[in-house]
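@channel sequence for tomorrow's demo:
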Amino acid sequence: MSPSELEILFMSKPENAIQLTLASGDLVTLKSTKNVVIDGLSLVMIDVRDEDKRRGKWRLISIPNIVQAETVEGRPPPPSDARRSRGPRKPK
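structure tokens (generated this afternoon):
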């Protein structure tokens, strides 16, 4: 996926959440595109949690690692750090 394709997706439906599927299988959910910056081949998500906007967390994603991006309507998808299930876990 190219940076220009992501920009078009972000601008087409800015009110909807966007779910990114990474090459590793991680699912990343962008609740809003207003705190997302695209610079070259990097996408930076900023999650501001404090009202005075001094505290929060950010995540840097390499755009070539994004396999799929789609808008999500209705109920929000799973948290951004969720991974796809690879089957039942083996007991230790």
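heads up for whoever presents: DSSP finds one helix and six strands in the chain.
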